[in-house]
Design goal:
Layout (H helix, E strand, L loop, with lengths): L7 H4 E5 L5 E6 L1 H20 L5 E5 L15 E5 L1 E18 L2 E18 L2 E19 L12
Antiparallel strand pairs: 1-2, 3-4, 5-6, 6-7
């Protein structure tokens, strides 16, 4: 987000009544989609950089015997990766106190990658949430409060 120079304040716009009471938030959808595209592009490029790494596999690993798996000179192995990434936004409202609600916009990033190794193909699927924006909504303090255990 810092690379794109986008702050939470630019993504979330509060709407207030004449008396100043907060009634709604709107989200800048165009900026969110631009941010998502940039983040997905960065993730795919990072996975693509795995191609630049050479691994060394001990010759003993080729025997199939556990005892010899770490013995012998290392044979160079090149890793080739193929990846696809996608992201979905979701909203979260979390209780932060009697009169407070934490509002978050979260981007769930999913990456499906395949590493092509000489011994076969390794498929990996990863998912991670990225908090894109959050704000604390403070409401009026209630005159009474009854906490009932559920």
């Amino acid at each position: 987000m810092s690379k794109e120079e986008i702050s939470s304040e630019e993504l979330l716009h509060p709407y207030r009544e004449i008396d100043g009471e907060l009634t709604a938030f709107t989200v800048d959808t165009l900026r969110l989609n631009t941010l998502r595209s940039s983040l997905i592009k960065t993730v795919v490029q990072s996975v693509g950089n795995l191609d630049n790494h050479d691994l060394g596999v001990p010759m003993g690993a080729l025997t199939g015997l556990d005892f010899f798996s770490a013995i012998g000179p290392k044979l160079p192995v090149r890793v080739i990766s193929v990846a696809a990434a996608q992201g979905e936004y979701r909203n979260e409202f979390l209780q932060a106190g009697i009169n407070q609600t934490l509002y978050r916009v979260v981007l769930d990033v999913q990456v499906a990658a395949r590493l092509l190794l000489p011994g076969g193909v390794v498929s990996i699927e990863l998912s991670t949430p990225v908090v894109v924006a959050e704000t604390l909504i403070v409401g009026q303090v209630p005159q009474t409060y009854v906490g009932l255990n559920k």
